[in-house]
Design a protein that fits this description.
This protein is mainly alpha-helical. 66% of the residues lie in helices and 0% in strands.
Length: 123
Amino acid sequence: MAWLGHSLTRVSRPRTLSGRKSDLDVWRTILKLFLDAKILSKEAEGISGSRDQLTSVQRLMGLRNQIFQARLSNSFRCEESRPLLIELFEVFTNCLQFQSFLTYHYQAIVEALGKFEDNTSLK
């Protein structure tokens, strides 16, 4: 994942006197939209506990649609930026899948511990 950060840094460096192209403003807008969407944070629901996976996926798809409707992907000046945007969405998708795995794993552990407690309690 470090390569993604290095690549984003390279394409979003401010312009130099040599006239090198930069996508700083476009990436800044995309990352601001991501933070505003609160895809990976529980704060958006206002409840404690695990996140609703469906809500997260819907927010990610909404973010994707918002980026493409605003034609931000067409605003890139560097050739490397479009593939990086696709990679970034793959990272977000993998994070949601991992989050889903953790949620199911946690639920399975709680259920197993509950059964263990029922079987070993003294009555």
